[in-house]
Amino acid sequence: MSVADAALIAGYTVGDGLLIAATLFVTLAIAMLYRAIMGPTNQDRVLAVNVLGTNTVVILALLGAALGEPWFLDIALVYALLNFLMSVAISKFTVERGGVI
């Protein structure tokens, strides 16, 4: 018996499992939001914001797969590109000010 068979016997679908995973990622994002606000150093804040962006991409991808809506994946891809550009911009800004991340 596979895991998928056991889940169907228990009354759960794959979409339910993906929604549960998305909920767990939202919980992790809330913890990272605390670190982004209260981080003791700028490096902690930058890393937390980057992890928040990555969590958002994963949550959007999970929701797209669970709900069967492919446009969620398009939004996740655009958000991933914006997250990368934000990381580069913050790094460049910090280095130009004389600090090193």
Automatic annotation (TrEMBL):
One GO molecular-function entry: sodium:proton antiporter activity
UniProt superkingdom: Archaea
Signal peptide: none
UniProt KW keywords: Cell membrane, Membrane, Transmembrane, Transmembrane helix, Transport
A Pfam family annotated for this UniProt entry: MrpF_PhaF
Membrane topology: Multi-pass membrane protein
Cellular location(s): Cell membrane
Gene Ontology CC entries for this record: plasma membrane
Coiled coil: none
Membrane-spanning parts: 6-34, 46-65, 71-90
NCBIfam families the record matches: PRK12599.1-3
UniProt protein name: Cation:proton antiporter
Organism: Halonotius aquaticus
